[in-house]
Amino acid sequence: MGERDFDVAIVGAGFAGMYLLHRLRGLGLSARVIEAGPGVGGTWYWNRYPGARCDVESLQYSYQFDDALQQEWDWSERYATQAEILEYAEHVADRYDLRRDIEFESRVTSAHYDEAESLWTLEADDGGKTVARFCVMATGCLSVPNWPNIEGLESFAGPTYHTALWPDRKIDFTGKRVAVIGTGSSAIQAIPLIAREAARLFVFQRTPNYTIPARNAPLDPDRVKDIKANYGAMRARAKTSLVGIAGDYNLGSALEAAPEDRQAEYERRWLQGGVTFMGAYGDLMLEKDANETAANFVRGKIREVVEDPALAETLCPDNIIGGKRLCVDTDYFATYNRDNVTLIDVKGRPIEAITAGAVRAHGRDFEIDVLIIATGFDAMTGALNNIDIRGRGDACLRERWADGPSSYLGLAMADFPNLFTVTGPGSPSVFTNMIPSIEQHVDWITDCLGYMKARNYTAIEAEGDAEKGWWDHVQEVAAQGLKATTDSWYLGANVAGKPRVFMPYYGGFPAYCQKCEQVAADGYEGFAFA
Ligand code: NA7
Q: Relative to the CA of 376, which ligand 1 atom is closest?
Protein backbone atom coordinates (compact mmCIF):
# COMPACT_ATOMS: atom_id res chain seq x y z
CA MET A 1 0.00 0.00 0.00
CA GLY A 2 1.36 3.40 -1.00
CA GLU A 3 2.35 6.25 1.27
CA ARG A 4 -0.31 8.75 2.02
CA ASP A 5 -0.31 12.14 3.67
CA PHE A 6 -3.87 11.93 4.95
CA ASP A 7 -6.76 9.55 5.14
CA VAL A 8 -9.07 12.06 3.51
CA ALA A 9 -8.51 15.05 1.24
CA ILE A 10 -11.42 17.50 1.26
CA VAL A 11 -11.80 20.10 -1.47
CA GLY A 12 -13.51 23.25 -0.19
CA ALA A 13 -13.87 24.91 3.21
CA GLY A 14 -17.49 25.97 2.97
CA PHE A 15 -20.12 24.60 5.33
CA ALA A 16 -19.62 21.09 3.88
CA GLY A 17 -15.84 20.93 4.11
CA MET A 18 -15.78 22.42 7.61
CA TYR A 19 -18.31 20.00 9.08
CA LEU A 20 -16.70 17.02 7.33
CA LEU A 21 -13.32 17.91 8.81
CA HIS A 22 -14.89 18.06 12.26
CA ARG A 23 -16.62 14.69 11.86
CA LEU A 24 -13.52 12.95 10.49
CA ARG A 25 -11.47 14.11 13.46
CA GLY A 26 -14.10 12.49 15.64
CA LEU A 27 -13.61 9.25 13.73
CA GLY A 28 -9.85 9.39 14.26
CA LEU A 29 -9.11 9.93 10.57
CA SER A 30 -6.57 12.46 9.38
CA ALA A 31 -7.88 15.00 6.91
CA ARG A 32 -6.69 18.02 4.97
CA VAL A 33 -9.01 20.63 3.53
CA ILE A 34 -7.80 22.47 0.45
CA GLU A 35 -9.54 25.77 -0.15
CA ALA A 36 -9.14 28.22 -3.04
CA GLY A 37 -10.15 31.27 -1.01
CA PRO A 38 -8.25 32.98 1.79
CA GLY A 39 -10.97 32.17 4.32
CA VAL A 40 -13.73 29.72 5.22
CA GLY A 41 -17.37 30.08 4.18
CA GLY A 42 -17.42 29.02 0.53
CA THR A 43 -20.12 30.79 -1.43
CA TRP A 44 -20.67 33.12 1.56
CA TYR A 45 -17.06 34.17 1.34
CA TRP A 46 -17.35 35.34 -2.26
CA ASN A 47 -20.90 36.67 -2.61
CA ARG A 48 -20.44 40.03 -0.87
CA TYR A 49 -22.60 42.12 -3.16
CA PRO A 50 -24.88 44.71 -1.53
CA GLY A 51 -28.00 43.10 -0.08
CA ALA A 52 -26.62 39.52 -0.18
CA ARG A 53 -28.67 37.41 2.23
CA CYS A 54 -29.80 33.86 2.56
CA ASP A 55 -33.41 33.21 1.53
CA VAL A 56 -33.81 30.58 4.26
CA GLU A 57 -34.49 32.01 7.70
CA SER A 58 -31.39 32.38 9.84
CA LEU A 59 -32.66 30.19 12.68
CA GLN A 60 -32.84 27.30 10.22
CA TYR A 61 -29.90 28.11 7.95
CA SER A 62 -27.36 26.92 10.48
CA TYR A 63 -25.74 23.74 11.75
CA GLN A 64 -27.60 21.50 14.15
CA PHE A 65 -24.89 18.90 14.86
CA ASP A 66 -23.97 20.50 18.15
CA ASP A 67 -26.72 21.84 20.37
CA ALA A 68 -24.25 24.01 22.27
CA LEU A 69 -23.40 25.79 19.01
CA GLN A 70 -26.98 26.46 18.05
CA GLN A 71 -27.76 27.66 21.56
CA GLU A 72 -24.83 30.04 21.85
CA TRP A 73 -25.06 31.67 18.42
CA ASP A 74 -27.39 34.65 18.09
CA TRP A 75 -28.73 35.63 14.71
CA SER A 76 -29.83 39.23 14.54
CA GLU A 77 -32.41 39.20 11.73
CA ARG A 78 -35.04 36.93 10.21
CA TYR A 79 -32.79 36.53 7.14
CA ALA A 80 -29.09 36.73 7.82
CA THR A 81 -26.83 38.96 5.77
CA GLN A 82 -23.83 37.51 3.97
CA ALA A 83 -21.61 39.25 6.53
CA GLU A 84 -23.35 37.57 9.44
CA ILE A 85 -23.29 34.14 7.80
CA LEU A 86 -19.59 34.56 7.14
CA GLU A 87 -19.05 35.60 10.75
CA TYR A 88 -20.88 32.43 11.78
CA ALA A 89 -18.67 30.29 9.51
CA GLU A 90 -15.59 31.93 11.05
CA HIS A 91 -16.95 31.32 14.54
CA VAL A 92 -17.40 27.63 13.70
CA ALA A 93 -13.86 27.43 12.31
CA ASP A 94 -12.48 28.93 15.55
CA ARG A 95 -14.73 27.05 17.91
CA TYR A 96 -13.73 23.65 16.51
CA ASP A 97 -10.15 24.71 15.77
CA LEU A 98 -10.57 23.83 12.11
CA ARG A 99 -8.09 26.20 10.49
CA ARG A 100 -5.00 24.16 11.40
CA ASP A 101 -6.11 21.50 8.92
CA ILE A 102 -7.11 23.86 6.13
CA GLU A 103 -4.76 24.91 3.35
CA PHE A 104 -6.02 28.30 2.14
CA GLU A 105 -5.41 30.01 -1.21
CA SER A 106 -4.77 26.72 -2.90
CA ARG A 107 -7.07 25.82 -5.80
CA VAL A 108 -7.23 22.12 -6.65
CA THR A 109 -6.72 21.62 -10.37
CA SER A 110 -6.54 17.83 -10.61
CA ALA A 111 -7.41 14.71 -8.64
CA HIS A 112 -6.15 11.40 -9.97
CA TYR A 113 -6.80 7.94 -8.57
CA ASP A 114 -4.17 5.26 -8.46
CA GLU A 115 -6.04 1.99 -8.48
CA ALA A 116 -3.09 -0.21 -7.50
CA GLU A 117 -2.47 1.86 -4.37
CA SER A 118 -6.08 2.95 -3.71
CA LEU A 119 -4.89 6.53 -3.38
CA TRP A 120 -5.97 9.90 -4.70
CA THR A 121 -3.36 12.50 -5.60
CA LEU A 122 -4.60 16.08 -5.68
CA GLU A 123 -2.64 18.88 -7.26
CA ALA A 124 -3.25 22.57 -6.75
CA ASP A 125 -2.41 25.75 -8.62
CA ASP A 126 0.15 26.75 -5.98
CA GLY A 127 2.14 23.57 -6.62
CA GLY A 128 0.67 21.83 -3.57
CA LYS A 129 0.23 18.06 -3.75
CA THR A 130 -1.84 15.94 -1.39
CA VAL A 131 -2.05 12.17 -1.35
CA ALA A 132 -5.00 10.61 0.46
CA ARG A 133 -7.00 7.42 0.50
CA PHE A 134 -10.31 9.23 0.05
CA CYS A 135 -11.20 12.42 -1.73
CA VAL A 136 -14.34 14.37 -0.91
CA MET A 137 -15.47 17.15 -3.19
CA ALA A 138 -17.13 19.74 -0.93
CA THR A 139 -17.00 22.21 -3.78
CA GLY A 140 -20.50 23.67 -3.52
CA CYS A 141 -23.43 23.92 -5.90
CA LEU A 142 -23.11 27.65 -6.62
CA SER A 143 -19.40 28.34 -6.57
CA VAL A 144 -18.33 28.94 -10.17
CA PRO A 145 -19.43 32.36 -11.48
CA ASN A 146 -21.07 32.36 -14.90
CA TRP A 147 -19.88 35.17 -17.18
CA PRO A 148 -22.12 36.23 -20.04
CA ASN A 149 -20.84 35.87 -23.56
CA ILE A 150 -21.23 39.52 -24.62
CA GLU A 151 -19.05 41.09 -27.24
CA GLY A 152 -16.59 43.59 -25.82
CA LEU A 153 -17.13 42.65 -22.17
CA GLU A 154 -13.39 42.96 -21.49
CA SER A 155 -13.18 46.33 -23.19
CA PHE A 156 -15.20 48.17 -20.53
CA ALA A 157 -12.86 50.79 -19.08
CA GLY A 158 -14.53 51.29 -15.70
CA PRO A 159 -14.76 48.79 -12.83
CA THR A 160 -16.60 45.51 -13.54
CA TYR A 161 -17.92 43.48 -10.62
CA HIS A 162 -19.47 40.01 -10.72
CA THR A 163 -21.92 39.55 -7.84
CA ALA A 164 -20.31 36.18 -7.04
CA LEU A 165 -16.78 37.64 -6.89
CA TRP A 166 -17.51 40.86 -5.08
CA PRO A 167 -14.54 42.68 -3.51
CA ASP A 168 -14.14 42.70 0.25
CA ARG A 169 -14.79 46.43 0.63
CA LYS A 170 -17.66 48.84 0.34
CA ILE A 171 -18.16 49.98 -3.25
CA ASP A 172 -19.51 53.51 -3.33
CA PHE A 173 -21.96 54.11 -6.17
CA THR A 174 -22.69 57.71 -5.23
CA GLY A 175 -22.92 59.88 -8.34
CA LYS A 176 -22.21 56.89 -10.59
CA ARG A 177 -24.05 55.56 -13.63
CA VAL A 178 -24.36 51.82 -13.07
CA ALA A 179 -25.51 48.90 -15.23
CA VAL A 180 -26.72 45.60 -13.80
CA ILE A 181 -26.92 42.68 -16.21
CA GLY A 182 -29.27 39.95 -15.00
CA THR A 183 -32.37 39.84 -12.82
CA GLY A 184 -31.89 36.66 -10.79
CA SER A 185 -31.79 36.42 -7.03
CA SER A 186 -28.46 38.25 -6.70
CA ALA A 187 -29.55 41.20 -8.85
CA ILE A 188 -32.94 41.35 -7.13
CA GLN A 189 -31.22 41.70 -3.76
CA ALA A 190 -28.62 44.20 -4.97
CA ILE A 191 -30.70 46.49 -7.22
CA PRO A 192 -32.76 48.30 -4.52
CA LEU A 193 -29.63 49.19 -2.54
CA ILE A 194 -27.58 50.28 -5.54
CA ALA A 195 -30.50 52.36 -6.84
CA ARG A 196 -30.54 54.36 -3.61
CA GLU A 197 -26.91 55.36 -4.06
CA ALA A 198 -26.29 55.58 -7.79
CA ALA A 199 -27.01 58.59 -9.98
CA ARG A 200 -28.46 56.33 -12.68
CA LEU A 201 -29.14 52.61 -12.70
CA PHE A 202 -29.77 50.66 -15.89
CA VAL A 203 -31.09 47.14 -15.38
CA PHE A 204 -30.77 44.77 -18.33
CA GLN A 205 -33.47 42.13 -17.96
CA ARG A 206 -33.61 39.02 -20.13
CA THR A 207 -36.22 37.13 -18.11
CA PRO A 208 -38.38 38.78 -15.45
CA ASN A 209 -38.50 36.89 -12.18
CA TYR A 210 -41.04 36.18 -9.48
CA THR A 211 -40.01 37.49 -6.11
CA ILE A 212 -41.80 37.54 -2.77
CA PRO A 213 -41.21 40.25 -0.14
CA ALA A 214 -38.81 39.05 2.55
CA ARG A 215 -40.47 41.07 5.35
CA ASN A 216 -37.07 40.96 6.94
CA ALA A 217 -36.83 42.35 10.46
CA PRO A 218 -34.75 42.03 13.61
CA LEU A 219 -35.54 38.75 15.37
CA ASP A 220 -37.88 38.97 18.31
CA PRO A 221 -35.93 37.81 21.40
CA ASP A 222 -38.99 35.97 22.78
CA ARG A 223 -39.41 34.02 19.57
CA VAL A 224 -35.71 33.14 19.56
CA LYS A 225 -36.01 31.99 23.18
CA ASP A 226 -38.97 29.78 22.29
CA ILE A 227 -37.20 28.23 19.33
CA LYS A 228 -34.02 27.65 21.29
CA ALA A 229 -36.00 25.94 24.04
CA ASN A 230 -37.33 23.49 21.43
CA TYR A 231 -34.67 23.64 18.74
CA GLY A 232 -34.59 19.88 18.29
CA ALA A 233 -38.33 19.75 17.65
CA MET A 234 -38.10 22.39 14.94
CA ARG A 235 -35.18 20.59 13.31
CA ALA A 236 -37.14 17.33 13.41
CA ARG A 237 -40.12 19.03 11.78
CA ALA A 238 -37.84 20.43 9.08
CA LYS A 239 -36.70 16.90 8.24
CA THR A 240 -40.27 15.91 7.40
CA SER A 241 -40.69 18.71 4.87
CA LEU A 242 -39.90 18.25 1.18
CA VAL A 243 -37.44 21.12 1.28
CA GLY A 244 -35.95 20.48 4.71
CA ILE A 245 -37.39 23.68 6.14
CA ALA A 246 -39.88 23.76 9.00
CA GLY A 247 -42.74 25.87 7.73
CA ASP A 248 -46.36 26.24 7.01
CA TYR A 249 -47.22 23.88 4.15
CA ASN A 250 -50.66 23.10 2.88
CA LEU A 251 -51.09 19.93 0.83
CA GLY A 252 -54.52 20.87 -0.51
CA SER A 253 -55.29 21.75 -4.11
CA ALA A 254 -55.26 25.32 -5.39
CA LEU A 255 -57.76 24.33 -8.07
CA GLU A 256 -60.25 22.94 -5.57
CA ALA A 257 -60.08 25.98 -3.28
CA ALA A 258 -62.76 28.66 -3.65
CA PRO A 259 -61.26 31.65 -5.53
CA GLU A 260 -61.80 34.03 -2.60
CA ASP A 261 -60.20 31.61 -0.12
CA ARG A 262 -57.28 31.10 -2.46
CA GLN A 263 -56.78 34.84 -2.83
CA ALA A 264 -56.88 35.24 0.96
CA GLU A 265 -54.35 32.45 1.38
CA TYR A 266 -51.94 34.03 -1.12
CA GLU A 267 -52.44 37.41 0.51
CA ARG A 268 -51.67 35.95 3.93
CA ARG A 269 -48.48 34.36 2.64
CA TRP A 270 -47.49 37.51 0.74
CA LEU A 271 -47.73 39.44 4.00
CA GLN A 272 -45.84 36.71 5.88
CA GLY A 273 -43.07 36.93 3.26
CA GLY A 274 -40.50 34.47 2.00
CA VAL A 275 -40.31 31.39 -0.18
CA THR A 276 -42.90 29.45 1.82
CA PHE A 277 -45.36 31.40 -0.32
CA MET A 278 -45.22 28.31 -2.54
CA GLY A 279 -46.34 26.17 0.40
CA ALA A 280 -49.86 27.55 -0.09
CA TYR A 281 -51.05 24.50 -2.04
CA GLY A 282 -49.73 21.04 -2.78
CA ASP A 283 -50.38 21.16 -6.53
CA LEU A 284 -48.66 24.45 -7.37
CA MET A 285 -45.62 22.68 -8.79
CA LEU A 286 -47.62 19.79 -10.27
CA GLU A 287 -50.48 21.36 -12.22
CA LYS A 288 -49.99 24.22 -14.64
CA ASP A 289 -53.46 25.65 -13.94
CA ALA A 290 -52.82 25.59 -10.20
CA ASN A 291 -49.47 27.27 -10.69
CA GLU A 292 -51.13 29.94 -12.80
CA THR A 293 -53.31 31.02 -9.86
CA ALA A 294 -50.21 31.81 -7.78
CA ALA A 295 -48.40 33.37 -10.74
CA ASN A 296 -51.42 35.58 -11.42
CA PHE A 297 -51.52 36.70 -7.82
CA VAL A 298 -47.89 37.82 -7.93
CA ARG A 299 -48.38 39.55 -11.29
CA GLY A 300 -51.28 41.40 -9.68
CA LYS A 301 -48.94 42.59 -6.92
CA ILE A 302 -46.36 43.77 -9.48
CA ARG A 303 -49.09 45.78 -11.25
CA GLU A 304 -50.15 47.30 -7.91
CA VAL A 305 -46.63 48.33 -6.94
CA VAL A 306 -45.18 49.51 -10.25
CA GLU A 307 -46.78 52.82 -11.20
CA ASP A 308 -46.10 52.79 -14.96
CA PRO A 309 -48.39 50.09 -16.45
CA ALA A 310 -46.12 49.33 -19.41
CA LEU A 311 -43.14 48.96 -17.11
CA ALA A 312 -45.17 46.70 -14.82
CA GLU A 313 -45.95 44.42 -17.79
CA THR A 314 -42.26 44.20 -18.67
CA LEU A 315 -41.54 43.16 -15.09
CA CYS A 316 -44.29 40.51 -15.06
CA PRO A 317 -42.97 36.99 -15.66
CA ASP A 318 -45.07 34.77 -17.88
CA ASN A 319 -43.47 31.45 -16.99
CA ILE A 320 -44.16 28.99 -14.17
CA ILE A 321 -43.78 30.50 -10.69
CA GLY A 322 -41.17 28.43 -8.86
CA GLY A 323 -39.79 27.01 -12.12
CA LYS A 324 -36.72 29.16 -11.75
CA ARG A 325 -35.77 29.54 -8.12
CA LEU A 326 -38.23 31.86 -6.42
CA CYS A 327 -36.57 35.05 -5.22
CA VAL A 328 -37.06 36.94 -1.97
CA ASP A 329 -36.61 40.69 -1.95
CA THR A 330 -36.88 43.97 -0.13
CA ASP A 331 -38.42 46.77 -2.22
CA TYR A 332 -37.45 45.25 -5.57
CA PHE A 333 -40.48 46.19 -7.68
CA ALA A 334 -40.92 49.57 -5.94
CA THR A 335 -37.36 50.43 -7.00
CA TYR A 336 -38.62 50.74 -10.58
CA ASN A 337 -40.77 53.72 -9.53
CA ARG A 338 -37.59 55.72 -8.96
CA ASP A 339 -36.65 58.33 -11.52
CA ASN A 340 -33.04 57.21 -11.62
CA VAL A 341 -33.83 53.58 -12.56
CA THR A 342 -34.35 52.36 -16.14
CA LEU A 343 -35.30 48.83 -17.14
CA ILE A 344 -34.08 47.62 -20.51
CA ASP A 345 -35.85 44.51 -21.78
CA VAL A 346 -33.29 42.43 -23.66
CA LYS A 347 -35.45 39.37 -24.16
CA GLY A 348 -35.24 38.42 -27.82
CA ARG A 349 -33.09 41.53 -28.39
CA PRO A 350 -29.84 40.64 -26.62
CA ILE A 351 -27.30 43.16 -25.44
CA GLU A 352 -25.37 44.00 -28.62
CA ALA A 353 -22.01 44.88 -27.12
CA ILE A 354 -20.16 46.40 -24.25
CA THR A 355 -17.84 49.23 -25.14
CA ALA A 356 -15.30 51.20 -23.11
CA GLY A 357 -18.03 53.38 -21.63
CA ALA A 358 -21.42 51.86 -22.36
CA VAL A 359 -23.73 48.90 -22.69
CA ARG A 360 -25.17 48.84 -26.20
CA ALA A 361 -28.71 47.56 -26.58
CA HIS A 362 -31.68 48.38 -28.77
CA GLY A 363 -29.23 50.21 -31.03
CA ARG A 364 -28.40 52.69 -28.28
CA ASP A 365 -25.43 53.26 -25.98
CA PHE A 366 -26.32 53.34 -22.29
CA GLU A 367 -23.35 55.22 -20.89
CA ILE A 368 -22.11 53.94 -17.56
CA ASP A 369 -19.27 54.24 -15.05
CA VAL A 370 -19.67 50.85 -13.34
CA LEU A 371 -20.69 47.47 -14.76
CA ILE A 372 -22.26 44.80 -12.57
CA ILE A 373 -22.54 41.27 -13.86
CA ALA A 374 -25.26 39.34 -12.04
CA THR A 375 -25.48 36.35 -14.36
CA GLY A 376 -25.25 33.62 -11.76
CA PHE A 377 -23.31 30.41 -11.67
CA ASP A 378 -22.25 27.36 -13.60
CA ALA A 379 -24.29 25.49 -11.02
CA MET A 380 -23.83 22.03 -9.53
CA THR A 381 -21.32 20.63 -12.04
CA GLY A 382 -19.17 23.71 -12.69
CA ALA A 383 -16.76 23.27 -9.80
CA LEU A 384 -16.35 19.53 -10.40
CA ASN A 385 -15.79 19.96 -14.13
CA ASN A 386 -13.15 22.60 -13.44
CA ILE A 387 -11.00 19.94 -11.79
CA ASP A 388 -9.36 17.23 -13.90
CA ILE A 389 -10.85 14.28 -12.01
CA ARG A 390 -9.62 10.88 -13.13
CA GLY A 391 -10.70 7.59 -11.65
CA ARG A 392 -10.09 3.95 -12.46
CA GLY A 393 -8.36 3.36 -15.79
CA ASP A 394 -7.94 7.11 -16.27
CA ALA A 395 -11.75 7.58 -16.55
CA CYS A 396 -12.24 11.34 -16.84
CA LEU A 397 -15.26 12.77 -15.02
CA ARG A 398 -15.51 15.80 -17.25
CA GLU A 399 -15.69 13.55 -20.34
CA ARG A 400 -18.09 11.19 -18.60
CA TRP A 401 -20.33 14.20 -17.95
CA ALA A 402 -19.98 15.77 -21.40
CA ASP A 403 -23.69 15.15 -22.02
CA GLY A 404 -24.69 15.97 -18.44
CA PRO A 405 -23.94 14.51 -15.01
CA SER A 406 -24.87 11.18 -13.53
CA SER A 407 -24.32 9.97 -10.00
CA TYR A 408 -25.45 7.43 -7.44
CA LEU A 409 -27.40 9.39 -4.81
CA GLY A 410 -25.45 12.54 -5.64
CA LEU A 411 -22.72 10.98 -3.52
CA ALA A 412 -20.53 8.81 -5.73
CA MET A 413 -19.86 7.74 -9.31
CA ALA A 414 -18.96 4.36 -10.82
CA ASP A 415 -15.29 4.15 -11.87
CA PHE A 416 -14.35 6.79 -9.31
CA PRO A 417 -13.54 4.73 -6.20
CA ASN A 418 -13.10 6.48 -2.85
CA LEU A 419 -14.45 9.73 -4.26
CA PHE A 420 -17.50 11.35 -2.69
CA THR A 421 -19.38 14.50 -3.62
CA VAL A 422 -21.24 16.49 -0.98
CA THR A 423 -24.64 17.65 -2.29
CA GLY A 424 -23.66 16.54 -5.77
CA PRO A 425 -25.98 16.31 -8.77
CA GLY A 426 -28.69 13.74 -8.09
CA SER A 427 -29.20 14.80 -4.47
CA PRO A 428 -31.91 17.24 -3.25
CA SER A 429 -29.24 19.86 -2.46
CA VAL A 430 -30.41 23.19 -3.91
CA PHE A 431 -34.09 22.30 -3.46
CA THR A 432 -33.55 22.12 0.26
CA ASN A 433 -32.12 24.08 3.11
CA MET A 434 -28.47 23.55 2.21
CA ILE A 435 -26.96 23.26 5.68
CA PRO A 436 -29.15 20.35 6.87
CA SER A 437 -28.61 18.69 3.47
CA ILE A 438 -24.87 19.12 3.90
CA GLU A 439 -25.05 17.65 7.41
CA GLN A 440 -27.01 14.66 6.12
CA HIS A 441 -24.41 13.98 3.41
CA VAL A 442 -21.45 14.49 5.71
CA ASP A 443 -23.00 12.20 8.32
CA TRP A 444 -23.63 9.56 5.67
CA ILE A 445 -20.07 9.76 4.31
CA THR A 446 -18.59 9.71 7.83
CA ASP A 447 -20.67 6.67 8.79
CA CYS A 448 -19.59 4.96 5.60
CA LEU A 449 -15.91 5.64 6.31
CA GLY A 450 -16.42 4.37 9.87
CA TYR A 451 -17.99 1.20 8.48
CA MET A 452 -15.01 0.71 6.17
CA LYS A 453 -12.51 1.41 8.93
CA ALA A 454 -14.10 -1.19 11.18
CA ARG A 455 -13.82 -3.79 8.39
CA ASN A 456 -10.42 -2.76 7.06
CA TYR A 457 -11.81 -1.99 3.64
CA THR A 458 -9.59 0.22 1.53
CA ALA A 459 -11.88 1.06 -1.37
CA ILE A 460 -15.55 1.72 -2.05
CA GLU A 461 -17.12 2.33 -5.42
CA ALA A 462 -20.63 2.92 -6.70
CA GLU A 463 -21.81 0.15 -9.02
CA GLY A 464 -22.70 1.19 -12.57
CA ASP A 465 -26.19 -0.34 -12.39
CA ALA A 466 -26.97 1.39 -9.11
CA GLU A 467 -25.84 4.71 -10.54
CA LYS A 468 -27.90 4.24 -13.68
CA GLY A 469 -30.98 3.19 -11.70
CA TRP A 470 -30.71 6.22 -9.43
CA TRP A 471 -30.09 8.65 -12.25
CA ASP A 472 -33.08 7.32 -14.21
CA HIS A 473 -35.15 7.86 -11.06
CA VAL A 474 -33.83 11.44 -10.72
CA GLN A 475 -34.98 12.14 -14.28
CA GLU A 476 -38.36 10.39 -13.85
CA VAL A 477 -39.16 12.40 -10.73
CA ALA A 478 -38.15 15.64 -12.44
CA ALA A 479 -40.45 14.86 -15.37
CA GLN A 480 -43.44 14.51 -13.02
CA GLY A 481 -43.46 18.13 -11.88
CA LEU A 482 -43.43 21.53 -13.52
CA LYS A 483 -39.93 22.42 -12.37
CA ALA A 484 -38.21 20.88 -15.39
CA THR A 485 -40.48 22.73 -17.83
CA THR A 486 -38.78 26.10 -17.19
CA ASP A 487 -35.34 27.18 -18.35
CA SER A 488 -33.23 27.46 -15.23
CA TRP A 489 -29.82 26.76 -13.79
CA TYR A 490 -31.28 23.49 -12.38
CA LEU A 491 -31.19 22.35 -16.02
CA GLY A 492 -27.97 24.07 -16.99
CA ALA A 493 -30.01 26.34 -19.27
CA ASN A 494 -28.24 29.49 -18.07
CA VAL A 495 -24.79 28.53 -19.33
CA ALA A 496 -24.14 28.66 -23.07
CA GLY A 497 -23.35 25.19 -24.39
CA LYS A 498 -24.09 23.38 -21.12
CA PRO A 499 -26.02 20.12 -21.64
CA ARG A 500 -29.64 20.41 -20.57
CA VAL A 501 -30.05 17.79 -17.90
CA PHE A 502 -32.09 18.22 -14.74
CA MET A 503 -29.49 17.98 -11.97
CA PRO A 504 -30.99 18.11 -8.46
CA TYR A 505 -33.20 15.35 -7.05
CA TYR A 506 -36.80 16.52 -6.87
CA GLY A 507 -38.27 13.65 -4.86
CA GLY A 508 -38.06 15.56 -1.59
CA PHE A 509 -35.73 15.56 1.39
CA PRO A 510 -37.54 12.89 3.51
CA ALA A 511 -37.72 10.30 0.71
CA TYR A 512 -34.11 10.95 -0.17
CA CYS A 513 -32.89 10.60 3.42
CA GLN A 514 -34.84 7.39 3.76
CA LYS A 515 -33.19 6.00 0.64
CA CYS A 516 -29.71 6.89 1.93
CA GLU A 517 -30.48 5.27 5.28
CA GLN A 518 -31.80 2.13 3.60
CA VAL A 519 -28.69 1.88 1.39
CA ALA A 520 -26.45 2.08 4.45
CA ALA A 521 -28.58 -0.33 6.49
CA ASP A 522 -28.35 -2.87 3.67
CA GLY A 523 -24.57 -2.89 3.85
CA TYR A 524 -24.22 -0.03 1.37
CA GLU A 525 -26.40 -1.45 -1.33
CA GLY A 526 -25.22 -0.43 -4.78
CA PHE A 527 -21.63 0.00 -3.62
CA ALA A 528 -18.78 -2.48 -3.91
CA PHE A 529 -15.98 -2.64 -1.34
CA ALA A 530 -12.41 -3.83 -1.69
P1 NA7 B 1 -29.38 33.45 -11.67
O2 NA7 B 1 -30.56 33.18 -10.85
O3 NA7 B 1 -28.87 32.38 -12.56
O4 NA7 B 1 -29.67 34.76 -12.51
C5 NA7 B 1 -28.85 35.18 -13.55
C6 NA7 B 1 -29.54 36.27 -14.31
O7 NA7 B 1 -28.67 36.73 -15.35
C8 NA7 B 1 -30.81 35.82 -14.98
O9 NA7 B 1 -31.73 36.87 -14.90
C10 NA7 B 1 -30.35 35.60 -16.41
O11 NA7 B 1 -31.38 35.67 -17.36
C12 NA7 B 1 -29.39 36.72 -16.56
N13 NA7 B 1 -28.46 36.56 -17.69
C14 NA7 B 1 -27.57 35.56 -17.88
N15 NA7 B 1 -26.88 35.77 -19.01
C16 NA7 B 1 -27.35 36.93 -19.53
C17 NA7 B 1 -27.05 37.68 -20.70
N18 NA7 B 1 -26.12 37.27 -21.56
N19 NA7 B 1 -27.75 38.82 -20.92
C20 NA7 B 1 -28.68 39.23 -20.07
N21 NA7 B 1 -29.01 38.55 -18.95
C22 NA7 B 1 -28.36 37.42 -18.69
O23 NA7 B 1 -28.13 33.88 -10.76
P24 NA7 B 1 -28.13 34.61 -9.35
O25 NA7 B 1 -26.73 34.86 -8.99
O26 NA7 B 1 -29.03 35.76 -9.36
O27 NA7 B 1 -28.76 33.57 -8.36
C28 NA7 B 1 -28.30 32.23 -8.35
C29 NA7 B 1 -28.75 31.54 -7.11
O30 NA7 B 1 -27.99 32.02 -6.00
C31 NA7 B 1 -30.16 31.77 -6.72
O32 NA7 B 1 -31.06 30.97 -7.40
C33 NA7 B 1 -30.14 31.49 -5.24
O34 NA7 B 1 -30.19 30.11 -5.04
C35 NA7 B 1 -28.78 31.96 -4.82
P36 NA7 B 1 -32.18 34.33 -17.81
O37 NA7 B 1 -33.12 34.04 -16.69
O38 NA7 B 1 -31.15 33.24 -17.99
O39 NA7 B 1 -32.85 34.71 -19.07
A: 23
- 264 and 388 share a domain? no
506 and 437 assigned to the same domain: yes
Please tell me whether residues 109 and 157 are part of one structural domain: no
User: Residue of the nearest CA to atom 18 in ligand 1?
Assistant: 148
| CB 52 less than 6 A from any atom of ligand 1 | no
Cβ of residue 346 lying under 6 Å from some atom of ligand 1: yes
Q: How many domains, in total, are found in the chain? A: 2
**Is the Cβ atom of 162 under 6 angstroms away from ligand 1?**
no
CA gyration radius for the chain?
23
Within 10 angstroms of residue 224's Cβ, the number of other Cβ atoms is 15
Give yes or no for residue 390 CB within 6 A of ligand 1.
no
What is the SS3 string spanning 268-320?
HHHHHCCHHHHHHCCCCCCCHHHHHHHHHHHHHHHHHHCCCHHHHHHHCCCCC
Which DSSP state fits 97? T
Instruction: Please state, in angstroms and rounded to a whole number, the distance separating the CA atoms of residues 449 and 134.
Output: 9
- For residue 376, how far is its CA from the centre of ligand 1 (angstroms)? 5
CB of residue 498 inside a 6 A radius of ligand 1: no
CATH number of the domain at 382, please: 3.50.50.60
Residue type, 66: D
Question: What are the mean pLDDT values of the chain's consecutive 10-residue runs (530 residues total)?
Answer: 84 98 98 98 98 98 98 98 98 98 98 97 97 98 97 98 97 98 98 98 98 98 97 98 96 98 98 97 98 98 98 98 97 98 97 98 98 98 98 97 98 98 98 98 98 98 98 97 95 95 98 98 98
Residues 189 and 138 in one domain: no
What's the domain range around 200? 153-373
Q: Residue 370, SS3?
A: strand
Q: Do 137 and 178 fall into the same domain?
A: no
Give me ligand 1 centre to Cα 375, in Å.
4
Domain boundary among 350, 373, 396: 373
- Indicate the top mutation candidate among 149, 186, 351 to test ligand 1's pocket, ranked by most ligand atoms within 8 A of CB: 186
Q: How far is the CA of 351 from the centre of ligand 1 (A)?
A: 15
Q: Of 373, 408, 440, which residue is a domain's last?
A: 373
- pTM greater than 0.85: yes
